[in-house]
């Protein structure tokens, strides 16, 4: 399959940074250009069509994660979804939240903010030598009868380490613990089924593997939990019949829309909706297979260099399309800058370099990038 028309960036750059921000596919760029022209010519005259796009976007997110459309809220980012969970549950002093110790800041700052209510966070070193072979067990062992929430990223942002969500979800269900998943590093890279994983809350922005814009996110709340999670923002749009402004009684929306306070980010939704359409047309199984193949090609080619340490998770199921490497010569900062000058766009994370290819890239280009990275390390001192 040739996706070069959809991703003109792939002819100019070795784009290995989908775990940060992805290039938009051409369908998204076209949709946004049409939207911009329409706005310039007629403002909100076609508002009904905007609402159609918004509804379709919710439906596409729902299809992507095997949810019902009513369970979806369109928010502004992952952090907002996590904050809704932190601020919307009723906590009791002495409650605790269990989470990995290597989470992206948003996924511990939200829980730390509950300290003033007597809620503690228990961080588990899931990648320590003692736990790396069974990090799920380490998380489960850290839970007790006062654990209200288990909060994890499906895939860790620094190195792509992946957790077994169905195992964690089943444990949470069995022990009456709520299960929150930050899915920003998995949606659009690998399939994710909220029902099979028994997820209560899922938050993810569109700008990484979903190939969408920044500032447009999906928030899923399991229907049986919705009554427990009170909205912590207020506005006209989260109520039933929102356009009926002149009334005294306002009934909160029965659906996930109860978390959408005011006017939507229609521009962002236009871009995200088009990108979701593309991913669903290709099919998430196909997307996942190709993304994982590209990552594995990269891992294999880089591992051949004696000057590069490739950090590989011990079990196959813990790997994702994120490849973390460390140069044994020079340092990560120097390597990052050298690669950028040569048109290889990746990310520096900690003392290493994070490479994140996606499904649409051709294997020859991936191998070419790998060779350039090996040569760049050779040049470092
Ligand atoms: C795992 C993870 N969670 C959350 C975020 C931040 O998400 P947002 O900016 O959508 O709040 C990132 C961004 O890198 C991330 O990697």
Architecture overview:
- The protein is α/β, with parallel strands linked by helices and 381 residues long.
- The chain folds into two domains: 9-24 and 284-379, Aspartate Aminotransferase, domain 1; 29-281, Type I PLP-dependent aspartate aminotransferase-like (Major domain) (Aspartate Aminotransferase, domain 2, 3-Layer(aba) Sandwich), CATH 3.40.640.
- The chain contains eleven helices and 13 strands.
- A seven-stranded mixed β-sheet has the order 2-8-7-6-5-3-4, with helices on both faces.
- The longest helix has 20 residues, at 284-303.
- The two termini are 40 Å apart.
- 45% of the residues are buried.
- The mean pLDDT is 96.
- Bound molecules: pyridoxal-5'-phosphate (PLP).
Continuous helix count: 11
CATH superfamily name of the largest domain?
Type I PLP-dependent aspartate aminotransferase-like (Major domain)
Mean pLDDT: 96
User: What would you call the shape?
Assistant: globular
**What's the CATH C level of the largest domain?**
Alpha Beta
Number of domains: 2
Order of helices and strands: HEHHEHEHEHEHEEEHHEEHEEEH
Helix content: 25-40%
Associated small molecules: pyridoxal-5'-phosphate
- Estimate the strand proportion: 5-15%
Major sheet: arrangement of strands: 2-8-7-6-5-3-4
